[in-house]
Amino acid sequence: MITVENLHKTFGNVEVLKGIDYEVAEQEVVCVIGPSGSGKSTFLRCLNALESITSGSVVINGHTLTDSKTNVNTVRREVGMVFQHFNLFPHLRVIDNVMLAPRKVAGISKEDAREKAEQLLAKVGLSEKRDAYPSSLSGGQQQRVAIARALAMDPRIMLFDEPTSALDPEIVGEVLSVMKNLAREGMTMVVVTHEMGFAREVADRVIFMDQGVIVEQGSPDDVFGNPQNSRTQGFLSKVL
Amino acid sequence: MFEAFGWNDLIPLLNGALLTIELCLTAGVIGSVIGVILGVARTSPRRVAKTISSIYINVIRGIPILVIIFFIFFGLPMLFPDLELSKFASAVVALTAFSAAYVGEVVRGSIEAVPAGQSEAAEALGFGYFRKLRYIILPQATKIAVPPGIGFIIGLIKDSSLVAVIGYIELTKAGSVVSNLTGDPITTFLIVGAMYFVICYGISLIGRWYEKRTGIHITSRRLRQPAGI
Amino acid sequence: MALYYGDLLPFTGILLQGLWVGLYVTVIAMLAGSVLGVLLYLGKSGRSRVLSGFSSGYIEVFRNTPLLVQLYLIYFGLPQLGLNVSSIWAALIGLTLNNAAYTAEIYRAGFEAVPVGLREAASALGMKGGDIVRYVLLMPATRNVFPSLTNQFILLFLASSIGSIISLPELTNAIMDVSNTTYRTVEALSIGGLLYFVVSWLLAMGSRYTEARLFRWARRSHV
Questions:
Q1: Is some CB atom of chain C closer than 8 A to the CB atom of B181?
Q2: What are the tens digits of pLDDT across the range B102-111?
Q3: Inter-chain contact C120–A105, Cβ cutoff 8 Å?
Q4: Phi-psi region of C121 (alpha: psi -120 to 50; beta: other; left: phi over 0)
Q5: How many CB atoms lie within 10 A of CB B189?
Q6: Would you call C135 and A80 a contact, using CB atoms and an 8 Å cutoff?
Q7: Model pTM greater than 0.90?
Q8: Best A46, A52, A86, A91 residue to mutate vs chain C (most C CBs within 10 Å)
């Protein structure tokens, strides 16, 4: 579903991604781990063109991002993203947050959008908050709404950029369990995270990135249980 | 009837500019000193100090400077018949009174912008109120106060134009005089405007340089900074 | 010296009339200036370098020169070009042009303070630029500019007093008229000052109340 070839990304004169090659298959859950500054978020953001690609190629769900003829918005309708800081629209009620894109981007009718939004809010366990404003929700609740909002567009792929990093520890669980369900249902997911437990439990494959390159990758058991590279070992020993 | 605007007419204007600067320096410095005291009082835990400074600041900022100028120049001599204030003195008093209120707000905002944790840490270390202010809060507040402080200076220079109404011959009044002599208000006031612009814009560039250098800029909303005038 | 406020009683009408003119002029200048301010903001942040330069220049000139000089240029300068302009028109034009420069900057600050993440989230959902501005950015930006704009209104109201210097019949003008007629200078100035203070205080209270109601969804200050 996603094919990345020799992806390079430079900000100013700093090269943040130094040649990434990777493939994500359908229904695969890939977790990206690594220290700060390793480029993991940048890598993720390149996948839905939130960051422009300096060189290399990314083909996502059949669309070649580097091709100037590709309509970025079409790609984004099929790829959902969840941000570290939720980025809910503060002036809209929860249900309107979820309904906005389906109505304005996909042209879905108000009634259909509402029905779908209700379903999704139920799915993430927040039906009773439908008329609340984001400012009255806890971080975990906001993030779950954000997931519902992304799912409302019926994406084929979901990207998560450190979805639980901004949450209090006791709230992390509620968001992770929504993500686990999503994985179980067969969603293709790429998750940048520090939650090693989640990666171990849910990921099909784990990528360890450091200083702009993929240092090691494999199944969770391989990467966590038997890391080959010394940098991987170093990182894991500090976080586990 | 009129003498056309000539190079000679620049002299009274330049003179006016100098008097404007002199006026603003005097009122600005005295006003700032009082303003700092007001600002500190405004954030003081003592209710009396807080209330008095609050009343002063809010009243002065709630009435036009022009009214204050008129009050000092026309009103005071009626209240205190023995008092003789020169135009310069009246202008200074009025602008000082106004500056004190403005600076008071700037100082208040700056003190409040210093993270609360600083105050708590100082108290936990045993610092008394004034020592805390002196060694921990005010040094940090001062850095924060620079951008709005620059805004204050620019505002003061512009506001000083209003003392023209009491006949003090700063830049704007000089402009009026020259404009009447030459019958050419356009040239005269364009030059007057340009002189103000050079001074104010120059100072604002200093402010921008400071903001770039230190990365400090405070949203004007916090200080209810007068944007207009 | 004794104060005789009673002598002012017959003149309350004149003072209130002056207050009314002041408010009237302020409202018009605020509305017109806000619209012009939007144009300036769009010009300054737009793609055309000519427009951007012009807008920036306009804003800097009007913010770095005194309002009084601007008014003098209009009130005395235009007649020099053959255009006779009344006090009220000069005041309206001057206040509007001046106000526009400040509102433009208010818009800029307000828009820049909207978190980048909101735009990104909307982009990630596939929304197009125009829709993003309209449905996602506009309300938060409005929330940001509202307090500054209401503050600007109050300042404009106080600044309208400068119009008295070019004979605009607003409150300060009335105060001085009354003072000259009754010789009750201190009383006139203090009552007039009180009127200004009460109005600006009411405006400030009103704006805080409106802010709380209009932007219930906002937690604290900036979005």
A1: no
A2: 999 999 999 9
A3: no
A4: alpha
A5: 26
A6: no
A7: no
A8: A91
